[in-house]
Amino acid sequence: MASHSDTLVVFFGATAGANGGKLGSDEREIILLVWQIVDLHEKKVGKLHRCVVKPDALELTDQCSEDTGLTVDDLAEAEPLDKVLQQFQQSVSSEVKCLGRSSFTLCVDSPHVIRQALHPEASKKNLVLPECFFSFVDVKKEFHKCCPDASSVPKRTLASMLEYVGLPAVSEESMGEMEVSSMVQLTLHLLAEPHNHKFTCVETVKYKFDSGTCNKMEPVDSETVIRARGLPWQSSDQDIARFFKGLSIAKGGVALCLNAQGRRNGEALVRFINSEHRDLALERHKHHMGSRYIEVYKATGEEFLKIAGGTSNEVAQFLSKENQVIIRMRGLPFTATPQDVLSFLGPESPVTDDAEGLLFVKYPDGRPTGDAFVLFSCEEYAQNALKRHKQILGKRYIELFRSTAAEVQQVLNRYMSAPLISTLPPSPIMPVPVLASPPYLPAASSSRDCVRLRGLPYTAGIEDILEFMGEHTVDIKPHGVHMVLNQQGRPSGDAFIQMKSPDKSFMVAQKCHKKTMKDRYVEVFQCSTEEMSIVLMGGTLNRSGLSPPPCKLPCLSPPTAYAAFPTPPSMLSEAALYQPPLLAAPRPHQTVAHSPAHALAYYPPQPHMYMNMNMNYTAYYPSPPVSPSTVGYFAAPPGSVAAAVAAQSHPAAGAASSGLPQHGALVRMQGLPYNTGVKDILSFFQGYQLQPDAVLILYNFSGQCSGEALITFHSEEIARRAVAERSTQPFYGQQVHMVLCN
């Protein structure tokens, strides 16, 4: 019997548009419901019921009007869907009770009427469907189970199935009544001898979407995944599940896609429990979510795992609490503490388990990104928190919006999987003598066999670090402790330690992270030898992670050692010495023929660069047991000082490779939107007769726009006038700062 029910309610529905196999594909409303009861014990049938439903939009397609025989006037006189469903519940319950039965299950000829028509429409109209509409049996699947040798039946229509079992076709002409009568006859035949079939294949409709995490090693069938495009950026996983109401999404099967800046791009990957539900989802192509239509396409399991898959134990632990509403906070001050966030949210939106319900997103070296995720135990608390969208915390306004478990995993993957140092592109280098490596300098390697200690007390020495690491000191390589000092030779609070293997460094990071040293907790992160080497050779810390030092001069010895190297005959321009970002030249880079094609090169330090530049520069010096070095190495990107020095020695090569304007007055713009293009800047300076090659947008070492650009004007007078006139004007709604560099 159907889920231990006493009766079946054979059920049929039609919409004001497409019906049959395309039912629900055009979002048209239900206009007709027909049903009849079958007693599974006595093999008897009840009265045939037919109800017309009044839709919100009183219109019919010509084909629907012809098939159903209904007119707009018929619809106008009918009851709305909620009233008809109430009548259905009362009528069926009363009839079942009169038969002496206690329960019933719906029986349909395809899942479309339940999954594609009834549930989506009820969701849009905020109707609460009776419980009976969350389970049903499909007569076609039951027929196939009862008669497995009937696979040759064409398209498995009701008429062909009746013909296969030797029953005459139903003669009713009215749409709905004919389908219900056919299903009733087929059902009675399957219940009788010799089949004695039991209706046990009950399908269910999920009440709500279950959030969760997905492991990267979990197999995902590509036949179960779709891509939804055109979503409102505020959409959550629950909103997407509501769009696909009636279909069963796998646990944690909604993954919102993010762009390069970590913001939602209006797309999501959705994973269903099987290919049948995926195919039904594809039929909702260009259905509406609010006023927006959503495009639905096929996707692959690999794409889903790339977005939603993760291995972070921190995320798994954070999301281990069931049935929590997740809110994402963006734009937090970097100094914000858990208590600051809890105070900002207020007592009317308590966070689950207080600080345990907060997850701050950090870079691989532990620096905050300004993002955080918050757990709330119910929708009410989450809604109270969302009311604080764009309110001020410290001196920054905070963005709050609903999030998903997959987005938590994706954001953590984005930040934590990226290396601390971005790979720099190969470029021309200076043909200067190569010096021997300094004593005990580790060879550059991507093996993560080092740890970084951050937040050390300034009075801490190597002995303190060895005591701090305890039993793990036996796994430190000889001469493997590197204290990082600032330019004045004072402790910076950082240290790097080489371990014997990546496993040992991982254990240290796990066991010693946030362990206390002299009343201060110390952060411990696993890193690679390459990352450690860059810092020890003079690298600096910035928002993009670790990077080579300003001026590309990683000198580790005191300035007195500079006298050993020759000084170029002329000074570099201020534009060439502007270091933080890479200069993205609008013309393609040309390789100089005589430049050696090495990935790494040595550069001599130049004393005048420090004496003539007003830069915020902090050099890092290693202390014993590693001896200071007089020279370092790094890759030289296009537009770097090294390229500029090469240009002085070889003017033709410099003109081709530096990408910097050679004539006119230079203006630096700061605070640009990160999606700014050359055309935007040319439009902003319309009337100043700028050419595209006069604009250089600056990028950081991660290849992302730094929010700055260099613009070359024909003369200093024109540049000054442009700065004076445009400084007060917003750049696409954002205030920018302009400085004349000449």
Automatic annotation (TrEMBL):
Q: Which GO terms describe its molecular function?
A: RNA binding
* TM stretches of this protein: none
Biological process (GO) annotations held by this record are: cranial skeletal system development; mRNA processing; RNA splicing
Q: Which SMART domains match?
A: RRM
Q: Which UniProt keywords apply?
A: mRNA processing, mRNA splicing, Nucleus, Repeat, RNA-binding
| Keyword RNA-binding found | yes
Instruction: Please give the SUPFAM superfamilies that the UniProt record associates with this protein.
Output: Ribonuclease H-like, RNA-binding domain, RBD
Q: Where in the cell is it found?
A: Nucleus
Report domain RRM positions: 225-297, 326-401, 450-525, 666-739
Can you quote a single GO CC term? nucleus
Its principal location? nucleus
Described function: mRNA splicing factor that regulates the formation of epithelial cell-specific isoforms. Specifically regulates the expression of FGFR2-IIIb, an epithelial cell-specific isoform of fgfr2. Acts by directly binding specific sequences in mRNAs. Binds the GU-rich sequence motifs in the ISE/ISS-3, a cis-element regulatory region present in the mRNA of fgfr2.
Q: Which family does it belong to?
A: Belongs to the ESRP family.
Q: What is this protein called?
A: RRM domain-containing protein
Species annotation: Gasterosteus aculeatus aculeatus
